[in-house]
Every structure is written in C-alpha cells, then in structure tokens.
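As described in the Methods, two query proteins were run sequentially through the folding procedure within a single session, without resetting any intermediate state between them. The first query and its resulting structure tokens are shown here.
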Amino acid sequence: MRRWIAPLLATAVALGPLVGRTQPSPAPQGLADTRTFGGVSEARILEAIRSARVLGRQNVGSTSVNLHLRLEGGIDAAWKPRTTSHGESYRAEIAAYRLNRLLGLNRVPPAISRPIQRSALRLAPGSPVIFDRDNTARGAAIYWVPVLRPSRIDGVEDQERWGRWLRQGRTVPPDQSQRAEEISTLLVFDFLTGNWDRWSGANVPMDAQGHLIYRDNNGGFEEPFVEGLLQRSRSLLHRTQRFRRSVIDRARAMTEASVRAEMALDPDRNAPPLSAAQIRSLLRRRDLLLQYVDGLARRHGEGAVYAW
C-alpha cells in the first residue's frame, strides 16, 4: 500500500487572481553555487519560488492539486501541497531535484519547500489540501519552465524506435545521440527514484532548446517499495543497455551520508524530502542499477556500454 498516495479524490479549486505572501521563512540553504537551469541561476530560481509574493494562481492539476503560481519578479512556480488524497508525495518533487544535483544533472526543474497561508490560496470548500495549526499548507514549489513542448518520445512507435537505439548491437543515428542519451539517463533516474509511471502519457516534455525535462516526479520514492513495483521499475530500466558514464559514476559514489546531506539543503527541517527508510530504498535500487550496468560492461565491454 502506498504511504504517500491514497486513492485519488476529485478536487475543486477556485480560480482567479489573488494577492498573498507566505509566512516569513529562512532563506534557502546551500545555494552558493554556480548551477543554472535553462540559463537562469538556480539560486535565483529557488529564492524566488520559495519567497516571492504570490500575485495569482490557477489549478492546472487533473487528478491532484497543482497550482500555477504567478509570482512577483517574473519567475513562476508550480505548487503541489500536502493533501488527503496524495499525502506528502509533494516531497518527492524536492527529493528528485536534489537527486538530480547529486547525479550532476540539470534536467529536473528546481524545487523547494514552501508553506502558504490559507488566506492566500482561496480554496473551494472540500479541497483536500491539509493545513497545519497555523493555517499554512506545506508543499513543494517547483520552477515553472517558461516553454515546454511535446518531445514525441512517449508514443508506442516512438518508444520502439528509441528502444532500438539503446540496445547493444544497434546503431544510434548520429543526429539522435543527444536524445538517446537523455532518454537513457531518464530511465536510470526513474529507476533510482522508483518512478514507474513516467510513460503513462505527456510526462516527458522538452524545453525551448529541445532538451528533455524530467518533471512530474511526485510518484517517486514510494515506501515501502514492494516487489511488484521493483520488477516493473527494472523492466523499464532494462530498456537501455547504453549509459552516460558520469551519471553511473555519480550514482556509484552516493552514500547514505551524501544523500542525507543533499536532502538537508532544503529549508524545511520538520519534513525533509526523504526519510531514512526512503534513503535506504534509494541506495538499494542504486546497487541493483550498478549490478545491471557492470554486468553489461563485462559482457559487451565498457566502450560499448558507456556510449556517452
């Protein structure tokens, strides 16, 4: 049974503009670096989506509460809160962003915890959003990527095509090498997060430059991660037999301490992105990933397996 995700409930969220601020909160931690996302400083993005004034919002979720927040300053956010229907699955969005950093990637939109006051949300009666005693709702603020376009890689024929590219003994067309690498790395990333629902449709967009964006990660890090989910995740991972060496090396270097330290950079001390049990599950999946990749390297040679 899922700990974070209960049976889906219909949600009704009133639409329209509003003015509101979150309660004062400490500045995000661990932002003194030079990382960028889509050409914008990640430090600037995180500061804005954590604390910028909310000018308006609209619910864009279909089966969950997912608000598009229009923020003062020009950087917008999606906001996914803690709800009775999806529990604390919002934390997986933050954990996925942090794991993306650990792996040396910049494919996951920056995400950070953000509490918002009830008065700023103006939710319809019966909304599943959960509020604390101080009338704030906890949630994840996720960078609203300004331009997203269909990548056209998740149709049946599309998946068959790139599936051939990623098999040993097949050739990756030279003009498709970047796309093949991004798909391979996405399969690795989803295996590590335990996100088995990526390919249900429209979950793999690309940005204005044509790079895949690994968004909608709130289905990851389910705990307990039962055998059926593991087998489904492994079958998806096994669709690739070619990998980016730096990603595998970064995964190999992960320890419980390094994961915990990265997750601790999120400012919410009361609800860290991952629990101890979730970190242990992540590292178990990492071990299985390495067993699979190392086995392929012994069979086909490192040069063939590490294609990028």
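Immediately afterward, the second query was submitted; its sequence and tokens are:
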Amino acid sequence: MTTPSPTDGWSDFLALFDACPLPQVQVGPDDAILRANAALTELLGIRPERLIGGRLVVPASGESAARLSWDDGKCEARLFAAVLVATPDYRICVVQFSNVDAMEAAARQYLLRNVQHRLRNLIASVRSIFRRTAATSDSIDHLTSHFLGRLDAIARIESNLALAERHGLELHDLVMDELAAFAVRAGEQAFLEGPDIRLRTSAATTLALAFHELGNNSIKYGALGSDGGQVWLRWWSDREQAVPMLRILWEEKSSDAPPAVRRSGFGTELLTKTIPFELDGSGTIDWTPDAFKVHISLPMTKRLLHPSD
C-alpha cells in the first residue's frame, strides 16, 4: 500500500509525526490505519506494524469519541480523537484514551481478582469436602452420592453469586433451596419462621452445606423420611448479648418411633467444628425421645451479614 503524502516537506512531516509526544495516527479515506507514531504504539504496548491495516473510525473533521481496532478486529480500544490535518487522501488524528477506558480497565482487573479469589476458595472448599466425605464413607457408592450431593449444595449458592454479591442471600431462600432439592415443600413438611436475614456469600455457603446435611439426614433417618413427619425451622436475633447473636433452631417431629441414633459424620463435623471455625459460632445436636433438635448460634457481625442487612 502506498501512503498518500504531501508533495512538499514530507520527510520533515514524518519526522515531526514520529517524534511527537502525543499519540497520533494517519488514516486513509476508508478509515484504515496507514501509520502510527511511537507514542501511540508504546502506549498500547505493541509493535507499529500491528496497527497498520487496522481501523480508526472518526468523523472527517472536528473531535469525537472514536474506536481503534487492530489485529483483524480482535483488539480494540475506545478513545478520544481530534483531526489535525484533513486531505482528500488521508487524515492525521491525535488520540487520547478516555477516562471511560481507564475505569473499564480498573473494573475488569477488579472482577478478575475477585474471580481468582473466589475460584481459589471454591477449589479449597471442594478439596476439603472431598477429604471429609472420604473420611466418613465406607464405600465408593457412599462417597460418590454424598460428595455429589454436597457439590450440588455449593452449586446452588454459586448460581446466585452475581445477585448475592450485591444484595446478599436471604436465609429463608437459602433454606428453601436446600429443602426443595429433597422435594420438601414449605407449609406441608417444613415450616419456616424468622425475620429477613441477608447473608454474605461465604457464610451462606457454610450454612447451605449445614442445611443440606440436615435435610439429607432427615430424609434417611428422621422426620422427613416418615409419614406425617415435620421439620420446624425458626431463627431470631438475640440482642441481649454484648454481640447480637443469630439463633437458629432446627427441630424434627414425628409420630413414628424415636429416630435411630444417627452416625457421627460430615454433618456433625460441619455443625460442631466448621461453623465455630468459619463463622465464630456454635452448633449443638440434641436427641430427645420425642424430637431431634439442632441449635446454631452465630455472631451477627460483618463476617455473617451482608452490608445491605
């Protein structure tokens, strides 16, 4: 391609063009890039030849927001362009990257760091769940079914991640999602009562696993697996302490014989060890001749509650 040029002083013009500290670009009538100076290519961090043949879409005169693209349109940037020289054959434009680009780049970096952080935490959680599931499994089938069920509980939380980061996860919705996974309906087999509580996603993941274990065990050994059995879940805020506490009571009632002693496994460890470690709370299990109860107490701090709550 032959670059259109003035007839007089072209070499001086090129020297000024290339030496200008302001990013500049020469485009043809079809908006194709014919030349770019070092200030622009250094700013982009690419070799000058990569821009040749790219496009800068900008009005024939005046100033306007423009779009620069190269590498067959695979790379692009938004910028502010002003036409310095206009001829029938070419235009010389000075460009400046807008604040919008800087903000978008910063936002992308933030999102990338956030995704990387959550991915590391997710992988760590999956590894921990697998190890603890394997430690309490007596067969491959037992390991597979329980591990997949626990992954499903995490997946239900992760599917609401975008909304949860901004607004938090409602405790009521979290419990209903876990019960729905076992085809348990509110108002028939399960009864929920408590104020609106919005949880952080990290806390919600731990509690979702806890309610998954309680639901799974109730189906196998307790009220949800018997005719007429019911689960009552109540939660309330206890503000009589120096630090307000969220109290949660899971209670199973059944007209059948008292529930058999349930094996101590992943769910027990989750309630008695994981909740204290991750949420500074406590979990206790209480068997009586007439009912099975689980008490969970959690400090109502920023570790538990979403800022919007």
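The longest strand covers residues 75-86. We note this only descriptively and draw no conclusion about the first query from it.
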